[in-house]
Amino acid sequence: MRYLLMLYADENAGAAIPPQDMAKAMDTMYAYQEALTKAGAFVSTSALAPTTQARTLRMEGGEVRQTGAGFVNEGGALKVQDGPYAEAREQFGGFFIIEAEDMDAAVKWAARCPAAQWGPVEIRPIVNTLSVSEAPWCADGGFAAKE
Amino acid sequence: MRYMLLIHHDENDLGDPDRLNEIYAGWAAFNAALAKAAGAAPGERMEPASKATTVRVRDGRTGIVDGPYSDTKEQLGGYFFIEAESLEKAVEWAELCPASKYGAVEIRPIVPPGRDY
């Protein structure tokens, strides 16, 4: 089972950390990634640019209607806004995708993540594409095609 | 430049349950387009936010809370990655995403590997 570990942190507090201290913090992250890799649990990781560089698109106005071609909103206009979807005290700043047996095992990995020391780590189970193969998300059997 | 696109939608209101296949067809077409695009990866779908767990470690003690980090009207329902030469091109991908019609699509640039956070 795959899990998305979403690392949240206060961006402003992060930006105020001296570079040498930040480098030490990053070393702990690399060590964590190495531990995941050794355990065969590592899938991927990325850091995200600050939310000041985020954009969020959504329809404004009009009415959402379900048609044979899915949802349409003919009266609305697509608006592109600066910033993330939701403003919060801490921001989504990076992730690990891991392979774990179950949520308990994923929680153990999250608790070992250095980022859990300075912000929350949200764990989201990723839909097992094989279990939804009967749903025609796409030709090869899932909303997510296997990599 | 690599981008992560986050799909937010109301997981309790995804249209007529008897007509889900029509919604899936739109996603299938979108995923097929992603599969063909250089540097892009078809999306991953999330289990409902109710199945999320949020973990914090303070002073060596692990705090575990059921549910996502923040409760919002819409929930993170999935994500996908694209390679785009500019934010404008990333916006074009977001427009193509079916969720732009009934939810919200958030675009987050990814820090290139090897560069400091």
Give a written overview of the molecule.
The complex is a heterodimer of chains A (147) and B (117). Chain A has 147 residues and is of the alpha+beta class. Chain A has a domain at 2-52 and 86-132: Dimeric alpha+beta barrel (Alpha-Beta Plaits, 2-Layer Sandwich), CATH 3.30.70. Helices cover 24% and strands 32% of the residues of chain A. Chain A is built from three helices and eight strands, in the order E-H-H-E-E-E-E-E-E-H-E. The longest helix of chain A has 20 residues, at 19-38. The model of chain A is unreliable at 130-147 (pLDDT under 50). With 117 residues, chain B is of the alpha+beta class. The mean pLDDT of chain B is 90. Strand 8 of chain A pairs antiparallel with strand 3 of chain B.
Largest sheet of chain A: 4 strands, antiparallel
When the domains of chain B are counted, the total is 1
The geometry of chain B reads as flat
Poorly predicted spans of chain A: 130-147
The CATH superfamily name of chain B is Dimeric alpha+beta barrel
Individual helix count of chain B: 3
N-to-C order of helices and strands of chain A: EHHEEEEEEHE
Strand content of chain B: 35-45%
Average of per-residue pLDDT values of chain B: 90
> Structural class of the secondary elements of chain A?
alpha+beta
Globally, the shape of chain A reads flat
Distance between the termini of chain A: 14 Å
Helix content of chain A: 10-25%
Question: What would you report as the Rg of chain B, rounded to the nearest angstrom?
Answer: 16 Å
